[in-house]
């Protein structure tokens, strides 16, 4: 079901500072940058082979990422798993007892289709299912 680690997401206070550090310390370059206003998050995708490190920062104080940072500080936020069929993967997880945050797949950044699954019942890790753009609709 899982075809790749799509991204590892790390919550940071200062996106530009984090981007500079990843460039200087790890040689990782930004391949894509996007703001999702309704989620209150700005992201930078740094390419690592076929996967990404996703640095995320809050765009407003009441966004989920802002609350995460207030409660837990900077650090690992979620794992994005690449799948061929987001809806099928979500259904399988729910049938296995996982708690969905998104009841149905929805648009994500980079024209992906995504669904989040709650860390509770998933051994403490927020999980994102990511279906890439070129695969959207292929099986639907
Ligand atoms: Co993500």
Nutshell version of this structure?
With 140 residues, this protein is an alpha+beta fold. The chain is built from 3 helices and 8 strands. The longest helix has 12 residues, at 15-26.
**Count, helices:** 3
Q: Order of strands across the biggest sheet?
A: 2-3-4-1-5-8-7-6
Task: Give the overall silhouette.
Answer: globular
Order of helices and strands: EHEEEHEHEEE
Largest sheet: 8 strands, mixed
From the alpha-carbon coordinates, what is the Rg to the nearest angstrom?
15 Å
- Catalogue the ligands: cobalt (II) ion
- Average the pLDDT over all residues and give the rounded result: 94
User: What fraction of the residues are assigned to beta strands by DSSP?
Assistant: 35-45%
Secondary structure category: alpha+beta
* Total beta strand runs: 8
Portion of residues within helices: 10-25%
Task: Walk me through what this model shows.
This protein is an alpha+beta fold. Helix content is 22%, strand content 39%. The protein has helices at residues 15-26, 64-72, 86-95; strands spanning 2-11, 30-36, 41-48, 51-58, 75-83, 106-107, 113-117, 126-131. An 8-stranded mixed beta sheet has the order 2-3-4-1-5-8-7-6. Strand 3 and strand 4 (51-58) form a beta hairpin. The longest helix has 12 residues, at 15-26. The two termini are 16 Å apart. The relative contact order is 0.19. Bound molecules: cobalt (II) ion. Cobalt (II) ion (CO) binds next to strand 1 and strand 5.
């Amino acid at each position: 079901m899982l075809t790749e680690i799509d991204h590892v997401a790390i919550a940071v206070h200062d996106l530009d500072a984090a981007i500079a550090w990843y460039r200087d310390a790890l040689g990782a370059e930004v391949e894509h940058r996007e703001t999702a206003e309704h989620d209150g998050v700005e992201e930078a995708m740094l390419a690592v082979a076929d996967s990404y490190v996703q640095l995320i920062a809050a765009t407003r104080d009441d966004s989920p990422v802002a609350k995460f940072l207030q409660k837990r500080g900077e650090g690992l936020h979620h794992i994005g798993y690449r799948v061929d069929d987001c809806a099928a993967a979500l259904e399988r997880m729910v049938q296995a007892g996982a708690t969905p945050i998104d009841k149905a797949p929805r648009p994500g950044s980079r024209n992906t289709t995504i669904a989040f699954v709650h860390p509770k019942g998933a051994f403490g890790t927020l999980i994102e299912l990511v279906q890439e753009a070129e695969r959207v609709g292929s099986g639907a």
